[in-house]
Structures are given as structure tokens and as C-alpha cells.
């Protein structure tokens, strides 16, 4: 875009003010009286354009008017005006003119100008709302003798009949101006007491000269944690928490190292202390290479205004270090949450979480920690009086984390029929929604359960199967758990080698392997049958000895035919079932009459024993778990049909 000396141009409008008709004058040639009169008028117009008071710099605010024109002398608000050019402007061709108009109007008003008139000697562009709303905005240009195009300011209309878009420069300027006006008249905001005194990172040794040194050691993690809490909370007004990363490592972090503070000034606090006990005496010490002793914040305002103020601390060990009374335990609700009459408990519970992290005003502990009254449900929580015998007691120290896990496994599986899972440093109940959780910590050269950080209470009782049959046991796959119960290893099946071994045909000479027959499965089925495995009405069944006998090899063909009749894919289960004690028609009838729990348990034991035997004899054809599940499903369906008949 070039701004040059304008050439003799005049532009007159038709009576409707829409069609432009430029008159191009070539000096140096004789003209008629009419042409001379038009030339004098053109010279007068050119003189008016050259006057400095008729053109002003490019507007930086939306209220700058364009050149004087009858079309511009309106009462339209200033934010409805957009003067694209403030002086005579020359363009090399039509496309440059259209592009410049579109870009300038888009920037100022939020709309892109579109071409309107494209005649040999005159062109114009308009606002896109001209056709729909009749917007009068228009930019005109005329052809010069040199072949270039000049903006005809006197024929341009800079006003609009509609407001600009919110993203335009004019609209933003109006909004900023309104905000500035409001800011000047608005009173200053009241000082907040919840903001921190320092918004810059602080080092603990700068504010706490007696903070524990790198050379200090402690006999336990609890002693170390409470030492840091006693030194930090009275100065910063923010507490700490910790978790064990391994048997020999503990990480202590600031309570502001949570996602809640990610969007706040300073972000999540990076302060952390790593403790290990790899010293010769087994004491815990700080590892400087893995610790960060710098907070992303300073003390909170409450601790500066009142040094005796303390935040609401929920960690039991931290409360003990600060000399605070223990919080009352929260009452857990039933598995089916009732409809709340109000949101008081929700608001109070949320307030506790906020206060514990951000250090806001302290509320009454009883009111803030209340989670609503406990409501009795269909499953009542089991108290300590009903706990199974043999559970680890507070203060019991075990040589390893696995030893603690095995102690709980032996106690719960033997009496309740409920398993326990482990994920260091936590133990949990196998029931998905049970709140029982044991937190194991390193203590005195061993490992013990921290009762303050644990929830040693179930929301259920023993398994229904073990109440019906005390010899019933759940299926256990964990190696450590099976070792605690004295069971063999449940190894995985060998990987497929790419070649299927040929199926061995039944042979009368095939004798059951004593190492294969699962004694637990045989005794379980034998006890169930001898005590009267029923069809659902409690009628006893005759006892049957399930020890493998030579007659079992004669029954394998009939058993295979029976399974094939159920489904062809389960016929391969004849051999493991025969070795497990299904050696005749009476035992097969009793197997089909077992209840769902006993049937699943028996088939799982037979399957595990068969997989173990497959490791010793790879030539056996593998059997899928799906086939065992299918057999259980078919037998259960047959039992239901027999009951209905």
C-alpha cells in the first residue's frame, strides 16, 4: 500500500447515493466549457483533500471520525464507526484494494468487507450486513490515469447500522474503557486473611533455624515425622504427610503437594524429605540427594496474626506431635447410601478437606468431622468381638511385610473364607466395597500394623459357603497366600510351543498318578457326599468313597460319553475328573447334585491339579479354563431343571 500525491479525480453520486461515476480528467488537452467547469470543481475538491485539517491519523480509538462527508454527519454511536483510511491512499490493482479493506474492517469491526461494485473505472466494497440489514458502510475507489486505484474518501461511508463483534478491536477498546472506569470508581477490596504472607519460594532453614539437620537420625519413622511436624507447623501453619515407598524408604511431603493447589499461586509445593535406614545401626536419616527443603509458599496469614493458631490436622501422628486431642472416628454408612435430608454434612466434610490443606479458618472439630449419623443397613459392621482368632494384634512385629500378609491370610481364610490382597504398604479385604484396610509400617527392625492409620473393621461377616460347610475354602492364586495355607503352587500353564500333542486314546492300563489326585478336592467332595449333598431340599445322599480304584479306568469311557453329550468341547475333562474320584455312576450323580458353591470349588481344585500335572507331562493335551466353566454351567442348569421337575 502506497500513499502518494493524488491525481485529479472527482466522484459524483447518483440520486440514490449508491452508484459511483468517476470522471477521469487528463490535463493538457482542450476542454469544452462544461469540462472546464468540472475541472474547476475537481481542483476545488483536490484542494480540500490536501488541507491538513480534513484528514487525521489512523484512529487508535473507535471514536475517531473519517473525512468530512454528508454521509458521516450522523448521530451514530462512536463504536458503530470504522474509518479504514485517514488520507488519500493508492493501490496498484483492484485486488490489493479489496484485500486491504477486508483486513482492516475485520480487525476494527469484526466483519470482513466484500466487493460490491466492480466497474471499469470505479470499484467499491461493503459490509457483509448490507444485503441483510441494509448497513450503509461503504469504501469507494476510482481509476487513475496511471492505471492505479485511489480511495475516494468523499464517497466513503464509515458508519454501520449494527454493533461490532465482541472480538473486534473496537469492542475490546470499549470493554477495556468500561473496566477502567469501573476500577476508578470501585472501592478497594478488603484485605483477605487467608492469603499467604510470602508468595515466593522459601527455604526451611531460612525461617526455621532449628530445623533437623542432614546428620540427624531417628529410631523410627514416626519419631522422624513428628520431629518435622513440630518444627514446621508453628512457623508455616501447614502440616505434612508421609507414605512408605519401599521397605527401606519413606517420603514426607508438604500438605500443599496436592492437585488442589496446582492452579493456585505457587502451585503444588515441591517440598519433600526422603528417609532411609541404610546406615549400619539401622536408624532412619535424611537422604539429601532425594530431598527438596524448599517450599513454594510462605507462612499462612493466620499463623502470622496469631502464633497460637493451628490448622485442622487429621493425621493421628501429626496431631500427637502437636499435642492435639485425637479426632473422633468417623461413622461409616451402610453399603446402600441413604438419601440425605440436607447438604450440611457434605459441606462440613468438604470444608475439613479444604482447611487441612490450605490453612483457612479453623472450625469446631466435632462439627467439621461429623459425617452424619450412622444408619443401620442390611449388612452390619463386624466389630472386634467377632474377629476371627489368630489376627495380628497391635504391637506384634513381623520379620517382613509378607509375613504380616500371611498372618492375615491364615486367620481370615480358615475361619471366614475371605481372602486378603496386598500392595505395599497396604493390606485390603477381597470384598470389593469392604472398608477394611491395614497399613503396615517398618517398626523396630521389623514390620507392624499401624492401628491409627488403618481401618480394621469389615462391613460383612464370614462367607456363606463356609458357614454351610466349614471345610470350604475359596480359590487362592497368590503364591504367598497358598504358602501360608500349606497349599501347592498354582503355576501358570506352559506357553504354546506351536505344535499340538496328539490326543491320547483312553487305555485300560492308564492308572491315576498319586501326585495328581488332589487330596483336598477328594476329601471335600467325599465330606459333602457323606454329609448329604442335596438337591436343594436337605435330603441326605448315601456316602461314597472317592479314592481312585481300578474300576475308575473302566468308567472313563462312559464318563467321556456323558460329557460329550453335554457338550463336545468338555469331553476332554473325563480324564482329570476320573483321576479326581469320579469313577462310577453314583459319584457322577452326586457331582451333578452339588450346590453351586461346592461345585465351583471342586472343579477349581481339579483344574489347578490338572494344570500342575500338565507341567510334569507336557504331552498331555491342554484344557482351557473356558471348558471347566462351561462344564460347571451345564451341571448347574441340569440341577435346576431337576429341581423344577
From TrEMBL:
Compositional bias segments (type: Polar residues): 72-81
Region described as Disordered: 1-82, 321-391, 498-549
Organism of origin: Rhodotorula paludigena
Biased composition (Low complexity): 369-382
Protein name per UniProt: Transposase MuDR plant domain-containing protein
Biased segments, Pro residues type: 59-68
Amino acid at each position: 500500500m502506497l500513499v502518494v500525491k493524488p491525481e485529479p479525480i472527482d466522484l459524483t453520486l447518483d440520486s440514490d447515493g449508491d452508484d459511483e461515476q468517476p470522471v477521469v480528467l487528463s490535463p493538457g488537452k482542450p476542454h469544452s466549457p462544461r469540462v472546464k467547469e468540472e475541472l474547476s470543481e475537481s481542483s476545488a475538491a483536490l484542494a480540500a483533500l490536501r488541507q491538513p485539517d480534513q484528514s487525521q491519523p489512523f484512529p487508535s480509538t473507535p471514536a475517531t471520525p473519517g473525512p468530512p462527508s454528508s454521509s458521516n454527519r450522523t448521530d451514530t454511536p462512536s463504536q458503530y464507526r470504522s474509518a479504514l483510511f485517514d488520507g488519500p491512499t493508492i493501490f496498484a490493482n483492484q485486488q490489493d484494494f479489496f484485500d486491504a479493506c477486508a483486513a482492516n474492517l475485520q480487525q476494527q469491526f469484526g466483519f470482513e468487507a466484500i466487493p460490491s461494485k466492480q466497474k471499469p473505472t470505479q470499484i467499491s466494497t461493503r459490509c457483509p450486513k448490507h444485503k441483510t440489514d441494509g448497513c450503509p458502510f461503504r469504501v469507494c475507489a476510482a481509476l487513475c490515469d496511471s492505471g492505479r486505484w485511489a480511495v475516494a474518501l468523499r464517497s466513503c461511508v464509515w458508519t454501520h447500522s449494527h454493533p461490532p463483534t465482541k472480538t473486534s478491536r473496537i469492542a475490546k477498546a470499549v470493554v477495556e474503557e468500561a473496566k477502567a472506569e469501573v476500577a476508578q470508581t470501585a472501592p478497594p477490596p478488603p484485605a483477605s486473611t487467608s492469603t499467604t504472607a510470602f508468595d515466593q519460594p522459601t527455604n526451611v532453614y531460612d525461617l526455621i533455624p532449628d530445623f533437623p539437620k542432614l546428620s540427624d537420625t531417628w529410631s523410627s519413622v514416626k519419631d522422624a515425622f513428628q520431629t518435622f511436624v513440630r518444627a514446621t507447623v508453628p512457623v508455616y501453619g501447614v502440616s505434612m504427610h508421609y507414605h512408605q515407598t519401599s521397605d527401606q524408604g519413606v517420603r514426607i511431603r508438604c500438605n500443599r503437594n496436592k492437585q488442589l493447589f496446582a492452579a493456585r499461586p505457587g502451585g503444588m509445593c515441591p517440598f519433600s524429605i526422603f528417609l532411609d535406614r541404610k546406615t549400619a545401626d539401622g536408624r532412619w536419616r535424611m537422604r539429601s540427594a532425594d530431598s527438596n527443603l524448599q517450599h513454594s509458599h510462605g507462612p499462612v496469614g493466620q499463623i502470622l496474626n496469631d502464633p497460637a493458631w493451628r490448622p485442622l490436622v487429621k493425621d493421628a501422628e501429626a496431631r500427637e506431635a502437636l499435642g492435639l486431642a485425637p479426632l473422633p472416628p468417623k461413622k461409616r454408612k451402610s453399603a446402600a447410601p441413604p438419601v440425605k435430608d440436607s447438604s450440611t454434612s457434605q459441606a462440613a466434610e468438604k470444608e475439613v478437606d479444604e482447611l487441612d490443606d490450605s490453612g483457612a479458618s479453623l472450625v469446631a472439630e466435632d462439627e467439621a468431622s461429623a459425617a452424619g449419623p450412622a444408619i443401620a443397613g442390611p449388612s452390619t459392621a463386624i466389630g472386634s468381638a467377632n474377629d476371627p482368632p489368630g489376627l495380628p494384634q497391635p504391637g506384634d512385629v513381623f520379620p517382613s511385610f509378607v509375613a504380616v500378609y500371611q498372618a492375615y491370610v491364615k486367620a481370615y481364610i480358615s475361619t471366614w473364607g475371605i481372602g486378603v490382597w496386598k500392595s505395599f504398604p497396604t493390606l485390603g479385604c477381597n470384598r470389593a466395597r469392604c472398608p477394611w484396610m491395614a497399613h503396615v509400617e517398618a517398626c523396630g527392625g521389623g514390620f507392624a500394623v499401624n492401628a491409627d492409620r488403618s481401618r480394621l473393621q469389615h462391613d460383612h461377616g464370614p462367607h456363606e459357603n463356609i458357614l454351610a460347610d466349614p471345610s470350604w475354602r475359596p480359590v487362592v492364586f497368590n503364591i504367598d497366600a497358598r504358602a501360608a495355607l500349606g497349599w501347592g503352587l498354582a503355576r501358570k500353564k506352559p506357553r504354546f510351543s506351536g505344535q499340538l500333542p496328539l490326543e491320547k486314546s483312553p487305555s485300560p492300563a492308564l492308572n491315576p498318578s498319586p501326585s495328581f489326585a488332589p487330596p483336598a478336592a477328594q476329601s471335600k467332595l467325599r465330606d459333602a457326599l457323606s454329609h448329604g449333598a442335596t438337591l436343594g431340599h436337605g435330603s441326605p445322599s448315601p456316602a461314597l468313597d472317592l479314592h481312585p480304584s481300578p474300576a475308575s479306568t473302566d468308567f472313563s469311557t462312559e464318563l467321556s460319553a456323558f460329557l460329550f453329550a453335554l457338550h463336545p468341547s468338555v469331553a476332554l475333562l473325563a480324564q482329570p475328573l476320573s483321576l479326581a474320584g469320579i469313577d462310577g455312576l453314583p459319584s457322577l450323580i452326586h457331582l451333578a447334585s452339588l450346590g453351586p458353591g461346592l461345585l465351583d470349588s471342586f472343579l477349581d481344585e481339579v483344574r489347578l491339579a490338572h494344570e500342575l500335572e500338565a507341567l510334569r507331562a507336557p504331552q498331555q493335551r491342554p484344557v482351557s479354563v473356558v471348558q471347566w466353566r462351561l462344564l460347571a454351567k451345564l451341571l448347574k442348569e441340569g440341577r435346576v431343571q431337576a429341581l423344577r421337575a
